[in-house]
Every structure is written in C-alpha cells, then in structure tokens.
Amino acid sequence: MKNFFQLSIFGIALLYLPDNMSAQKMSAVVPIVDVKSGYLLGGSRGGKWIGAKSTAQFLKSGASYRLFNATKFLGNARFSEPKSQGAPCPDTLFTQVSPGEIQAKWKLNEAEFAIGNARHPMPHPLRIESTNQASYRNIVASILKARGIVKPVVGITQIWRVDLDGDGTQEVLLSATRKDDSGQAQSIAPDSRAGDYSLVLLRKIVRGEVKNSLLEGDFYPRAKKFNAPGFHRLAAVFDANGDGKMEVLLRGRYYEGDWVSLYEMHGEKPGKVLSEGCGA
C-alpha cells in the first residue's frame, strides 16, 4: 500500500513570532504549500530544508502569500493555519483559502504552489514545449524497453526546458504516461495492464554529455492485480530555498490517494528534499 494519500483544497499559512524567538529567525522561515491539494509541503530556513511539522510551528492564519502557476506569478491570497484532518492521514497538514479570498483577481484554480516570502522564486524562465517531438519519443521508448516493456506505447505528456542551476545551460524535464484505448491519459485504477508506465525524467548536460535521471517512475511489463499503479507529472519549477537554483515540484497519484514531492540538484543528480501526501 502506498504511503501517500488523498487531498483537500488549497492552502497556506502565516508566520508568527513566538516570544522566545528573534525576528531574524522568524524571517528565515519560508513555508511552501501545494495549492492543488492543500498540503503544507514544508519550507526552508536559512537555505536549509525543514519538514511540514517543523514549518507549521511558525504559521498561523491570515498571512498573504504569493501564488504561482508553472510559469508566472498570479497574485496574493490569505490562507488558514495548517492542521491535520485526522484519518486516514493524521500526520499530513492541510490548509484552506481564507473566507472571501475566492473572489480575488487571480484565478485560484490556476495556482500550483504558494510560497511565504516576497522574493520572486523564478530566476530563470520556463519554456513549455510541444510533446510531439520524435527525438524525445525515441528516448522514452528506449527507457521503457530497458525496463522490460518490449513494445512500448509512448505517450509524452509534458516537455519543459529550463536552466535549473543558473549555469547558462538548459535542462529538459519530461513526463510520460501510457494512454488508454480511447487516447486519454490512463485512468486511475487499482490494477495495471501489461505495458503500463508513468515517469518523470530529467535530461542534463554533464561534462559535455547528456545524462538521463529518473525522478519518479512506475513500470509494468506484465499485468498485475491490485498493485495501485502510480501516475506522475510535473507541477512547477522554482527556487524554493533562496539559493538561486531551481527545484522541481512533482505530483503523483494512485487510485486511493496522491502526493507531492520536491527535488533539488545534488551535484549532477537530483534528490528528493520534501514530500507530503494522503491516501488509504
């Protein structure tokens, strides 16, 4: 059974200053919220990652946070204090948009994430490209064959190009998921068909050569019953901790729940730094 689970609605919170803490320490806590699910993902403090529970100690209702979609700033909104909603996910903290915020000028349903500081978190532009590119279809097909899917049905769902680390060279991020017989993205089901898959891939130039790094992926060469196959996609790319480099926000789901994860570059390879979710 997966460790990630079903969602609520939008969210975020506000900083407050405990009596025994300095204003300098307070200003260093930068919360991150996944707006689609309402999960408090965690945050950063002095450039270091902190989990959701630690972040929540500095948050309360009423603050104005900055909301973004995958490519741009959308506006500000106020959100509730993050709280547990109990079973089945007592350790997951949810937040909700404050009353009256729904009529704000920006469209809440466009937002992907919210961040609790005034700094612009997109130092490098993201370009969304066509998914109908033969070179990337061939790359995905090769990966699937290497994972045992002999005759892959390639379905690229996203291709993004962005300079993650500010070195002047753009990386490529792509997601791919097998489509069903109707041509739609694979439906959420407890079982997998032979040849099903879903993945998110990073392509980065390292010492003059392109290297592939699998961020997340599920591969099913053979059909399986009640194995809860996962589905993965890109959500956003942004500088979440103020170090000038951009992290990658991913979404995953299965038939009884979902999760979000944040990845940063660790040298030449990406590594997961924050993750939250909910489900049965």
Notes on the protein architecture:
With 280 residues, the protein is mainly beta. The protein folds into 2 domains: 14-115, no CATH class; 127-279, no CATH class. It has helices at 23-27, 52-56, 134-146, and strands spanning 14-15, 29-34, 39-45, 48-50, 59-60, 64-68, 73-78, 83-84, 93-94, 113-115, 127-128, 156-162, 171-177, 196-206, 209-220, 231-238, 247-254, 257-266, 269-279. The strands form 5 sheets. It has a 6-stranded antiparallel β-sheet with strand order 4-3-2-10-6-7. A 5-stranded antiparallel β-sheet has the order 11-12-13-14-15, covered by helices on one side. Strand 6 and strand 7 (73-78) form a beta hairpin. The radius of gyration is 19 Å and the shape is globular. The N and C termini lie close together (8 Å).
Outline of this structure?
This protein folds into 2 domains: 14-115, no CATH class; 127-279, no CATH class.
Characteristic key phrases:
6-stranded antiparallel sheet, 2 domains, mainly beta, 41% strand, globular, 19 strands, disordered N terminus, 280 residues, 3 helices, 5-stranded antiparallel sheet
In N-to-C order, the SSE pattern is: EHEEEHEEEEEEEHEEEEEEEE
What is the molecular shape? Answer: globular
Cross-sheet strand order for the largest sheet = 4-3-2-10-6-7
Query: Number of DSSP strands?
Result: 19
Main beta sheet:
6 strands, antiparallel
Output the radius of gyration. 19 Å
Amino-to-carboxy terminus distance: 8 Å
Q: Mean of residue pLDDT?
A: 85
